[in-house]
# Entry
Amino acid sequence: MKGNAVVIGGGIGGLAAARALAQHGWAVAVRERSPALPATGTSLGMWPEALEALDEIGVGRRVREAAVRVSDAGSAGLRTPAGRALVELGGSGGLYLVSRSALLAILADGVGITFSDGVTDQRGLAGVDLVVGADGTFSGTRRTVFGERYAARTLGAVAWRGTVPGTVSSYGETWAPGAMFGITPAGPDASNWYACLDAGGTFKPPHRQHLQDVFGSWRSGVTEVLDRLEEGAILHHELFEVPPLPSFVGGNTALVGDAAHAMAPFLGRGACEAIVDGAVLAKCLGNAATVAEGLAAYDRQRRGKTQRMAAMSRRMGRLAMMRRGFVARNAVLGAAGSVLRRGQGLFRRQP
Ligand SMILES: Cc1cc2nc3c(=O)[nH]c(=O)nc-3n(C[C@H](O)[C@H](O)[C@H](O)COP(=O)(O)OP(=O)(O)OC[C@H]3O[C@@H](n4cnc5c(N)ncnc54)[C@H](O)[C@@H]3O)c2cc1C
# Structure
């Protein structure tokens, strides 16, 4: 079926859904409360399912061209703060790293977006065939459909992230009790970094100083990043997740992306799942006779899968930053890594 749709939120989930629906013949309007797309942003890992969905909605080639492949990243893996390798990450041709701003610009190309147009009262949307709630972790659309009971909850952890100029001597993640630091390439002459602490609330600036205090004695790749940090370019926020919703749909409304399943970032899957949501939603509606039938199919195909992913991502964060039992964890990881290297030549963290 076809019809008209309003997409609330012009982030990755909203723009993927808008493109996919338009491809299936829907008339789509995207309403975004920010004045413009962001011009800067850190890198996002794109796993194969997301790349397939991007192919389906016609932008996979452009995203791959704008991205860095992990196999081009040089040495990477999981390490201890002293630099001891727990697991080496082989050349996984499947993972691409793309900057959020480049991905958004590609997704937005040709999509009708009105900026500075936040939706404050969804009653104004009566009359449209479909409402897509793509308004992120603190989604007002989710509140309208399910009430306050499913408000986002803190994960008891905070993150810092950013991009620094130049490459570093080694990429990958460093795990320590209560803390982790990750570095990925972000193009031929830039590196993306992220750091997490299992601490509640947010920290006051200067962030550079906090990062130096916690991570300043870690292995060389980490200190190379810290030496290049600029205070104004550091993003800092608390980490949240959305509790498992009883449905991703209500009436003629579908939730996609973080509005439906904001998850801990430790598997690097939130944006990937948001893209897949958009492609699946449009396919389900395209194959259905009514909006209700299409939305029911979307809920069936996406809810269980993404909620399992969110649970795994939360557990991965606990594993990475565990305060007790990390010696045994490191031994298990080391053994698993060498078995996998022998068997497949590759350790993949993809679930
Ligand atoms: C530290 C960290 C690292 C991550 N790394 C990865 C990674 O490597 N790979 C990956 O796949 N994912 C990653 N993610 C997750 C990813 O960033 C999110 O899952 C993804 O951005 C969700 O996209 P979205 O469009 O659903 O939500 P958002 O990006 O939050 O977009 C929501 C949009 O809705 C707009 N909006 C909100 N309310 C309204 C309103 N009332 N009216 C109109 N507009 C509104 C907002 O302005 C925003 O533009 C990471 C997340 C974090 C925190």
